[in-house]
């Protein structure tokens, strides 16, 4: 397979892998047949979990409220069986106002004596707490209430190929009667019950307990004790340990009554029973912690989920069954593979894709019946189908790519990392930033991860950053006027407090991948811009700048020139609580790629090695192409291009939401042109203009948010680049209580006079601050296998291609 990195070659050509050779097929009269080969984005892996299936009806949900409402109705209408899987499944997650998941399932099994429910959350690993054991106890208690065994819960352990304790069962899916499937990025968990207004008021919609959710700040409010319940008292266990080591007996009857009466889960913290991250004024541990709605904002949620009715729902069901059976154990019910796919119901072609470690695939095979084992070949290794689908989509894109993802950690040109060096330049020592140094002194968690990993210093390797840079490079080097643009929407930082060592480290890798790394996304674009300049100037070694990490000539290129090809966005909202102005990021949890308004890829996989390389987290996604084709002038060139209705409508619906139009919150009506023509340069420039203006307004109002420049004493002085803690005072070595992760921050309002200008905002988009943390080393030394794949030997930048066969046996690529 051709190398996906532009390099010097004997022919002197770039992008040999992008030259398509198609024989023109004509009829007897010489009229050419229409060719579809360039649209073959389906994954042709050696042992694909599923094939593309036609005849599916799809519905996209762009808010949690819409998804949960449809799901609740489908659960009530279920005739035979319900499958539920998720990274996090909370029994008291609100699916409607005041209606918990427990309530919806209990009502369904009471109404239908034939209904069976199978639930498979991830078996969480400390210090992450997803309340999986508590969900198991409560949902299995439905059997007692219903008077029959109708609910089974199995906790899915990690089946990664190595460093197993680091990784998770990450699929998010529900199947009704093996003919309707829900799949995407939304877990049945706290915080997802949201709409297009991204409301920050924690007590709106009568949210209770941990449904008042914000993982980025301390929870300083309290829930009335009468509303709380400890599910461990159903069994006398605390996360599989005797209640207070046997000192407190179970209280089954009263606990079950409290659950039926509308109680909510008590808060735990970091696996310690009855201890949470919040404290009472007395300093005693608290398990009634929630947001103080009078002064603290909730964190809104941005995500996308699909409903599939038709043949591909059968593939999602089959995935659940083999996962369930792989868990083993005498108490679980062995499920049979579903029958043949449902009849055709719509016009969408869908391929269900997986990331699945070899160990997981083998466990699935071992858990299958002897008849099923005979009907299929034994697994031959891991599956990384989602990454391959992304590769196909990126390389075949002609006009634009829209990415919405929770993470962007990808190969940025470094083979090894070390906690005492910058990832951008591993040859020079650089001390930790002031904030990182403070946090490092407070714990040893990062040290422990390094001791638990075989390859703690391997850098991220996945090829998404490389492929995006390469595709943009084709446009730059072509020498012809071509409208092509990439828009990426991300969280401004991963969920969690900015004084959390893991969050700080992930910010470090994200900024290396996007901006600072020698082969970051933006620096790859700068390298191509420099290469074209050198080539046009007849400089003989012009191609060296594309591949040699020691060649720094690209640094002459103003990084602003990258904005012609790449737009980087975050999302944010604000409100007023009493006399206090507050703001919070809108948390982008989506895992979506839309290309040319033709194809949509949505699922559970993040852009990092955990999700994409197949040997770590289990993932699931669907690639969709609608048969309903339309023609639109999407780039403003005057030439119409073929689009597909489903992908185009999905992108338009999401953008209307982000631009504030759907929720009618400071709607950016000036961006309606972008909704119609996403690849038109005038329109992506308009998006950038709105996002830039919004970012400046937020920075003027709130000193503590991630920003390009630090606080300045003079209006004429831009100051230095902002630290990871923007209010960090190097002289005082403190934030002086000015960051939201400090309890003291919430004692009084933390905004400037400029807050009165927030009414000038348009929509929710803000520009990602590309200079934030510039010059800082925030690599706290966690084993990079948490965010990167690890191999025994270093791999070149095109590592994926070494796993591919020497020749493309199909147009979508095939692993050996």
Describe the structure.
With 816 residues, the chain is α+β, with helices and mostly antiparallel strands. It has a domain at 407-588 and 628-782. Helices cover 25% and strands 16% of the residues. The strands form seven sheets. The chain has a 17-stranded mixed beta sheet that branches. A two-stranded antiparallel ribbon has the order 3-4.
Helix tally equals 20
Radius of gyration: 26 Å
Mean pLDDT: 85
End-to-end span in angstroms?
11 Å
Point out poorly predicted stretches.
1-23, 33-38, 270-285, 418-428, 713-718, 788-816
The amount of helix comes to: 25-40%
Strand content: 15-25%
Count of distinct strands: 29
Strand pairing plus helix content: what structural class?
alpha+beta
Major sheet attributes: 17 strands, mixed
Q: So what's the overall shape?
A: globular
Q: Please identify the oligomeric state.
A: single chain
């Amino acid at each position: 397979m051709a190398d996906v990195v532009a390099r010097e070659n004997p022919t002197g050509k770039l992008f040999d892998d992008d030259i398509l050779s198609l024989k023109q097929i004509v009829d007897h009269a010489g009229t050419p047949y229409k060719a579809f080969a360039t649209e073959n984005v389906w994954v042709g892996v050696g042992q694909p979990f599923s094939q593309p299936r036609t005849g599916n009806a799809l519905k996209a949900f762009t808010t949690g409220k819409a998804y949960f409402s449809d799901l609740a109705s489908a659960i009530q209408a279920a005739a035979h069986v319900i499958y539920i899987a998720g990274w996090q499944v909370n029994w008291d997650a609100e699916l409607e106002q005041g209606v918990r998941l427990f309530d919806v399932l209990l009502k369904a099994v009471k109404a239908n004596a034939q209904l069976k429910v199978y639930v498979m959350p991830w078996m969480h690993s400390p210090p992450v707490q997803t309340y999986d054991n508590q969900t198991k106890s409560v949902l299995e208690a439905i059997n007692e209430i219903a008077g029959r065994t109708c609910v089974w819960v199995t906790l899915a352990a990690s089946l990664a190929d190595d460093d197993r304790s680091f990784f998770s069962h990450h699929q998010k899916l529900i199947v009704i009667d093996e003919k309707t499937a829900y799949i995407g990025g939304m877990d049945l968990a706290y915080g997802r019950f949201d709409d297009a207004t991204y409301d920050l008021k924690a007590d709106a919609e009568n949210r209770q307990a941990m449904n008042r959710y914000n993982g980025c700040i301390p929870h300083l409010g309290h829930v009335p004790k009468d509303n709380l319940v400890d599910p461990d008292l159903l069994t006398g266990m605390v996360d599989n340990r005797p209640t207070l080591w046997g000192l407190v007996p179970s209280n089954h009857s009263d606990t079950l009554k409290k659950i039926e009466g509308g109680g909510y889960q008590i808060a735990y913290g970091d696996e310690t029973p009855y201890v949470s991250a919040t404290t009472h004024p007395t300093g005693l541990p608290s398990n009634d912690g929630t947001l103080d709605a009078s002064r603290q904002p909730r964190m809104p949620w941005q995500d996308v989920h699909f409903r599939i009715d038709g043949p591909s729902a059968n593939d999602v069901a089959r995935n659940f069954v083999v996962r369930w059976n792989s868990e083993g154990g005498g108490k679980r019910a062995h499920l049979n593979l579903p029958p043949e796919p449902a009849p055709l119901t719509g016009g969408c072609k869908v391929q269900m894709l997986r990331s699945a470690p070899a160990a997981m695939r083998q466990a699935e095979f071992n858990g299958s019946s002897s008849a099923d084992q005979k009907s299929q070949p034994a697994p031959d290794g891991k599956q990384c189908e989602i990454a391959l689908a992304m590769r196909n989509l990126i390389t075949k894109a002609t006009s634009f790519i829209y990415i919405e993802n929770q993470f962007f950690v990808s190969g940025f040109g470094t083979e090894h990392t070390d906690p005492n060096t910058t990832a951008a330049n591993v040859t020079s020592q650089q001390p930790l930033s002031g904030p990182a140094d403070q946090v490092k002194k407070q714990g040893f968690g990062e040290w422990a991860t390094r001791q638990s990993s075989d390859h703690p210093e391997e850098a991220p390797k996945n090829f998404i950053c490389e492929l995006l840079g390469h595709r943009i490079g084709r446009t730059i080097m072509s020498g012809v006027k071509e409208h092509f643009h990439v828009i990426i929407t991300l969280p401004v930082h991963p969920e969690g407090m900015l004084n959390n060592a893991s969050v700080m480290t992930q910010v470090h890798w994200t900024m290396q991948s996007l901006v600072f790394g020698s082969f970051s996304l933006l620096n790859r674009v700068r390298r191509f811009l420099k290469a074209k300049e050198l080539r046009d100037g007849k400089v003989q070694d012009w191609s060296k700048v594309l591949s040699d990490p020691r060649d720094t000539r690209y640094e002459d290129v103003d990084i602003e020139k990258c904005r012609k090809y790449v737009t980087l966005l975050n999302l944010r909202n604000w409100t007023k609580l009493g006399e206090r102005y507050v703001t919070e990021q809108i948390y982008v949890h989506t895992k979506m790629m839309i290309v040319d308004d033709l194809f949509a890829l949505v699922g559970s996989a993040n852009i990092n090695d955990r999700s994409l390389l197949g040997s770590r987290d289990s993932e699931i996604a669907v690639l969709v192409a609608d048969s309903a084709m339309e023609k639109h002038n999407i780039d403003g060139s005057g030439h119409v291009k073929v689009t597909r209705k489903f992908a185009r409508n999905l992108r338009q619906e999401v953008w209307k939401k982000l631009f504030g139009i759907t929720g009618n919150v400071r709607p950016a009506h000036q961006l309606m042109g972008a909704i119609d023509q996403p690849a038109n340069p005038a329109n992506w420039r308009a998006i950038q203009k709105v996002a830039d203006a919004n970012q400046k307004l937020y920075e003027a109002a709130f000193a503590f948010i991630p920003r390009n420049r630090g606080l300045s004493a003079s209006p004429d002085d831009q100051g230095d680049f902002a630290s990871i803690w923007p209010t960090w005072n190097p002289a005082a070595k403190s934030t002086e209580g000015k960051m939201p992760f400090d309890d003291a921050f919430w004692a009084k309002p933390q905004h400037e006079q400029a807050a009165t200008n927030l009414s000038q905002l348009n929509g929710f988009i803000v520009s990602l601050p590309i200079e934030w943390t510039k010059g800082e080393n925030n690599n706290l030394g966690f084993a990079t296998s948490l965010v990167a794949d690890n191999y025994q030997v270093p791999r070149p930048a095109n590592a994926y291609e070494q796993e591919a066969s020497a020749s493309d046996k199909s147009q979508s690529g095939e692993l050996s």
